[in-house]
Amino acid sequence: MKTVGFIGLGVMGQGMVRNLRKAGFTVKGYNRTKEKGLVLEADGVEIVDTIQDVVTDVDVVISIVGYPQDVEQIYFEDGILDHAAPGTILIDMTTSSPALAERIAQEAAARDLQALDAPVTGGDLGAKNGTLAILVGGEEAPFVQAKPLFEAMGKSISLFGGPGKGQSAKLANQIAIAGSMIGTAEMLLFVTRSGIDPTQFIETIKSGSAGSWSLENLIPRVIAENYSPGFFVKHFIKDMRLALERGAEMGIATPGLALTKDLYEQLAELGHADSGTQALYLLLAERSRASVE
Amino acid sequence: MKTVGFIGLGVMGQGMVRNLRKAGFTVKGYNRTKEKGLVLEADGVEIVDTIQDVVTDVDVVISIVGYPQDVEQIYFEDGILDHAAPGTILIDMTTSSPALAERIAQEAAARDLQALDAPVTGGDLGAKNGTLAILVGGEEAPFVQAKPLFEAMGKSISLFGGPGKGQSAKLANQIAIAGSMIGTAEMLLFVTRSGIDPTQFIETIKSGSAGSWSLENLIPRVIAENYSPGFFVKHFIKDMRLALERGAEMGIATPGLALTKDLYEQLAELGHADSGTQALYLLLAERSRASVE
């Protein structure tokens, strides 16, 4: 497991590739918009023109692209499954559908390939610093073989079971975030409209039972009126839709998630698809103005 | 500020009174059901029979009772306001209505009394260990005078502004908790129905952006099928209703809080009013069974 074909050289992919290079792996890279990937040539990465090129003569193929339909495209249409040599390990690190991960694993096995789903949490900073949490689904054997690569890219690495379990774990993580986001955004609106200093308030309560990562990391950005993306609204909507879809497949009730997804869709319609998730506050504030008038 | 009349000797009150005694204050106590308070006689607390008795010959009156209607009863009907001597500081530490706190402060000022609203977070353990967060509203002068008492009972003490601001801060805290509860309960249901080990999952993600106090402290109790109350469902419903009421007065939108309150009311109807708030999981699991069948 020395050579890697890496598909998807956006902000996340670039950080991950650099950490693979630092750990001594040989990396070949592919990006749909080739120009965006060329910056990695300075790190000794060969940037190739096609999916067929990037999956040839490598031990492992890693992909981190945008949406499940992009994953389907590269695996089934552009030909990862058709062109990878038998024995290659295929790792999709896109946050995607558990059902699609199951289907890829099945198709891979039929071709003597081994597939893992391994979405991450920790954002672009985690990708850059090699501190991602990597949530893995698939068989034990390829997981063990791929572990040195995961360790180059992440800090907290966990195999949760067979194909799709990595995706399911990631979607569960996003469900908890949905609750934190709605709770802290409504909290902040209540605090500011009550005439209470929000920074003093957070300092007083943050170590108690209302404490959360969102409270400590995102709410201060809202107070500073900074809505730039750590995590894009449009990507969060994608994740929540995937979680709702999988929840429906399993027949489970997630009314909080359904509500939060609806609110974020309304936020995107207001022009905030490319804002950070903390912009939810703006939707609630907007609605409150409307109800007062 | 040496002598305290303390009204409400339940689990919270007992812990707080013991810490006042340890710090050297003289305490006189009153409880509606007198017998429950008698245990404090061993700590040198005189237990008296009436509100009139407990507010007489003291510098400070502290109350922590059940519901806003109980606060109204002791202040306006049982006669805290009528019987306290001019100059007495009146501190209500019940989680109650900001509007009621404002009304009490106004009536107190008209009688040359000084009122503070000072609800707490940290639960019975915080009360016992003197580690409560105390969220205060009222004037600066009585706050400064009462500070040694607050320091005997709590760790994080903050004055947020005039009358009612302590109550508003506490309700805002509960709004953030509502979001955490719905998010983590739905997350856990998704995890378990996906066939993922929930303890392994929490260990992997808890320091990331899904992290929260609820995730680390309440979800492990659900995994252990422990629904005993740290914080009662019935009290959380009370707090959420107060927050919604105040939110409506201010004209603000809190759809997540409204949903979570509805779900907890349904949980109480299933017989869980006296369970801990982590029992929300049971309602969602129940609904999911129903939707599968």
Automatic annotation (TrEMBL), chains A, B:
Gene3D superfamilies in the cross-refs: N-(1-d-carboxylethyl)-l-norvaline Dehydrogenase, domain 2, NAD(P)-binding Rossmann-like Domain
Keywords: NAD, Oxidoreductase
Coiled-coil regions listed: none
UniProt EC number: 1.1.-.-
Top EC category: oxidoreductase
InterPro entries: 3-OH-isobutyrate_DH-rel_CS (IPR002204), 6-PGluconate_DH-like_C_sf (IPR008927), 6PGD_dom2 (IPR013328), 6PGDH_NADP-bd (IPR006115), HIBADH-like_NADP-bd (IPR029154), HIBADH-related (IPR015815), NAD(P)-bd_dom_sf (IPR036291)
Gene Ontology molecular-function annotations: oxidoreductase activity
The 6-phosphogluconate dehydrogenase NADP-binding domain, residue ranges: 3-159
Domain 3-hydroxyisobutyrate dehydrogenase-like NAD-binding: 164-282
Family: Belongs to the HIBADH-related family.
PANTHER family assigned to the protein according to its UniProt record, in alphabetical order: 3-HYDROXYISOBUTYRATE DEHYDROGENASE-LIKE 1, MITOCHONDRIAL-RELATED
Protein name as annotated: NAD(P)-dependent oxidoreductase
Species this protein is from: Exiguobacterium indicum
